[in-house]
Design a protein that fits this description.
The protein is an alpha/beta fold. It is built from 6 helices and 13 strands. Helix 1 packs across helix 4. The chain is globular.
């Protein structure tokens, strides 16, 4: 299978080379396209770095004996995914792996992750994807994370097209790794805070959350030494809560002609039903 491998730590991060090598050894065809520099926190941004909107691209050497095709892209990981699906690096990929990220991506804070953002961009483009992140440790257990990714790759490819799996790997030897499906923590393993800075400047830092994570959450299971897998999705519509609809419906009726495809809910006794739009 032709697999695009990207990350948000940059093309020179050790994790991306280990992951691409593991894919090649498993019989797949990895194509690496990763940012020229650290793009952590880029989310699913596709911003371009130059005023004229061009994207600089160059061949890269991962130092792999497998001769893996690799590209250094002056762009975010999400933009690397987008351009890959347009044929920027040869035949478009069949799926996307993003990582191995140097640090965990847990909880609702994954909204800001460039690693997860690349995977969600793949989903929007109709591809399945996996984001793989590793808990820091000395030494970094890159191979353990790659082994987990390869082991779960079949789960990804057997799932419906457009599935995204967020995988987090604790700092544990491979022989002691156990896997659990997990819910997203309300926050994550780290939270943002403002440090003391000079006048006219702000210094943002990421620190351990401190609070006890909820039972069954990815943060709690990782703290217990489990690999966690969570199926995640990108932007989607939500049903409008009745309380909001009750406030906005009169305004909508005075300014917009209702359409049959978008009825607003109304209360009938203690039940709710859709406002009829035709008679």
């Amino acid at each position: 299978m032709r697999v695009l491998v990207t990350n948000d730590d940059g093309i020179h991060s050790p994790g991306i080379a280990v992951l691409a090598t593991a894919l090649a050894e498993a019989g797949h065809t990895p194509i690496v396209a990763a940012p020229a520099e650290d793009m952590s926190g880029a989310s699913a941004s596709v911003i371009r770095m130059h005023r004229d909107a061009h994207i600089e691209v160059a061949r890269a050497d991962l130092g792999s004996k497998d001769g893996i095709e690799a590209w250094c892209v002056d762009a975010t990981p999400a933009l690397a995914v987008l351009t890959a699906t347009l044929g920027a690096f040869g035949e478009p990929p069949e799926t996307v792996l993003s990582g191995i990220n140097a640090g965990l991506n847990t909880g609702l804070s994954i909204l800001h992750s460039g690693t997860v953002g690349a995977a969600l961009t793949a989903q929007r483009l109709g591809l399945s994807a996996m984001a793989i992140s590793l808990e820091p440790g000395d030494p970094w257990l890159w191979q353990t994370a790659a082994d987990v990714a390869i082991g779960q790759f079949g789960v990804l490819t057997d799932a419906p097209q457009g599935t995204v799996l967020n995988v987090n790997v604790p700092h544990r030897p491979a022989q002691r790794v156990e896997i659990r499906w997990a819910q997203l923590d309300p926050y994550g393993t780290v939270r943002a805070s403002l440090a003391d800075g000079e006048s006219g400047r702000m210094q943002l830092e990421m620190r351990a959350g401190g609070a006890e994570p909820p039972h069954g959450s990815d943060a709690a299971l990782l703290a217990s030494g489990f690999v966690t897998i969570t199926a995640v999705g990108g932007v989607h519509e939500q049903a409008m809560p009745y309380e909001v609809a009750e406030l906005v419906q009169p305004r909508l009726e005075s300014s917009v002609v209702p359409t049959p495809s978008s009825p607003l809910p109304v209360r009938v006794g203690k039940k709710r039903r859709a406002t009829p739009t035709t008679r």
